[in-house]
Amino acid sequence: MQDRPFFVTIGKGGVLAALEELDRQLGEAGRGRLLSKKNPTDWTGKEILPGQIGLINHGGVPKILTKTGRYPGFPFRNWWARTWKGTKGLSDTVIEFQGLTIVQVSQNQAAVVSDPQNQIFVVKNSGFAAYAIEGTYDVLSIVDQTHLPGAVKDHVTHNILGWTHEVKMLSTISSGERKEYIVATFLNIPASNTAVLQRGDDLQLLGAGQSVITNPSVTLRGLYTLGENQIEMKTKDIFTRDQVPVSLTIYLKWQLAEPLKLTTHGYDTPYDALRDKTQSILTQIVAHLDYSSMVKQRSLGPDNMDDGDDPSSAFLDALRTRAMDEMHEAALEYGIVLKDLAVMDRQFKGEIASTMDRLTTRGLQAQVEAANVDRENSNKVKQEEGALSVSRIKAQTSNTQSDAQAYAVIAAAKAQAEKLKIEAEAQAEATRLAAQAEAEAVRIKARADADVLDAYAREMGLRRMEVSKVRAYGHKTVFVPTEGMGAKMGETMALGMAAGLGADSRRAAA
Predict the structure, then answer these.
(1) Structure confidence at residue 307 (pLDDT)
(2) Does CATH place domain 229-348 in 3.30.479.30?
(3) Which residues does 114 contact at the CB level (< 8 Å), separation at least 6?
(4) Organism's domain of life (predicted)?
């Protein structure tokens, strides 16, 4: 912007400082001054408020009043050569007057301007004041860079790739016809997306953010996302080896890693490149397979892998090995990383497919019936096994209960016996202790009697013993001595009593 004559960038001093600098440049170049020398009054005339400038047409030359106040008209201030054109705000975005152009844009705005030589330039986050001696400065558009109107979507995934806005300029050709031409293209690219630009034979990546293209030799080739994408696509009809047409529904998941490779091959989206290659590879695979090898299996994916015994294993093996490998290699040539490939569904077409489908359906029904019979037999066997298991469990439960009851009886008997034993031992110990105590008492008493020296006292002691014996055995009891003469007399008495008892018995018998 600095290379143009009588062009001053608006800096910290604002519009007034820029106008003063522009007036100085015009004066040094011998041109008419821009700022008027008129001084305001305070009583009558055209009024200029703070924050405004006054515009005067002085014979086709602009004059600017920057001082606030009132400016009287004819005849006081020689207004006959001048025409009052009103006021403008110092903060207005665009001011155009008699070749003078003032442009100020805020942080998110951008001004697209055509200079007197029809060269296009863009002003961002600043402004300028310029005076065109020949031609004009035309402000073509003021663009809000954060809210561009044109959303660019991927026609396959319908994801937003970015936003664009084209600024056009009317131009008159020799025939007098006026046409519009694109002079600037604004881009707003979200995160994880990118744009591809072309200049001649060179391609260049443009990262996320706000950008504008004004160079006519630079064109926008396309917008792309670098994130993961997925889609289900239907293939065209493919013929099996036995000439049965089939249409497949394919699940694809990919991520674009190198957009320049994709653009070099002439594809607008990664899906366009994958679609053509997928159709070609699947056509070659299905052409070597029979209808019967494809009819059962409905899908293929990381969670659906068989052991190779299924009749459709040939088709699945071919997809797992050949299709995935070839698709991965082909995608890398276009700068695409293939993340997943799966067959979601297949539809067989034609009369042959209908006939074979009926035959296959009958065979499947027979298999289902046989499987049902086997399942019923298996269920019966399982029921019998279940009943047997229940009986066995009941018997085990009964045995366990009997064992528990027997153990309880034995434990109770042992406890009772242990109780009786403990009670007997306690009673015997009590008796023993009582006998010991009584014997000890007798010994002590005997020892005390032996220690008595008085004869009368001893005699009294013996008599007390006699009294005790009579009280214990009765007054009719005869005590027989067991030693000396008394003992012999006792034996004689006993023999006599026995003889008398024998005589009485003989008399009774006679």
Answers:
(1) 45
(2) yes
(3) 120, 137, 138, 140, 169, 183
(4) Eukaryota
